[in-house]
Amino acid sequence: MKFLAILPAAAIFAAPAVAGPYVNTESNSSWYGADALGTVIELHGGYEGEITEGVGYYVQAGPALVLPEGGSNDTQFSGKAGVVADVTDELEVYGEYAFITGDEFGSNVKVGATYRF
Asked: What is the mean pLDDT of residues 24-47?
């Protein structure tokens, strides 16, 4: 759990060896069973780089267009920070913290692994 707590700090305070800006547009739609809940479209600007060889980070933020099913559209602010680390040539692990503002501030943490054959 301590690893997750340091993800945003590691991304913000790291001195990258290789870094660069980027833009990211992402659309996330949700359903509960057969009921559509809505869509959030994020329009982010970001920055990514290396903390050490084989360990990278990214931070991104920007407007989020909230389009609820049957509700009023709104624009909020959202962002993400994450770390990706190579374990072997085939295996990498990652962690991400994401948030969105609004009447009810929302956030989540995602961790996972990718294995390439």
From this structure: 96
Using the Cα atoms of residue 4, residue 79, residue 85 and residue 47 in order, give the sign of their dihedral: negative
The more confident residue out of 100 and 1 is 100
CB 63 within 8 A of CB 40: no
Residue 52: pLDDT above 60?
A: yes
Confidence category of residue 19, pLDDT binned at 50, 70, 90: confident
Q: Where are the domains of the chain?
A: 2-115
Give dist(CA 117, CA 89) in Å, integer: 10
Strand ranges across the sheet with 55-68: 19-32, 35-52, 55-68, 74-86, 91-100, 106-115
Q: How far apart are CA 115 and CA 117, in angstroms?
A: 7
Residue type, 56: G
What is the pTM for the complete model shown? 0.76
Return the biggest CA–CA distance within the chain: 48
Using CA atoms, how far apart are residues 27 and 7, in angstroms rounded to an integer? 24
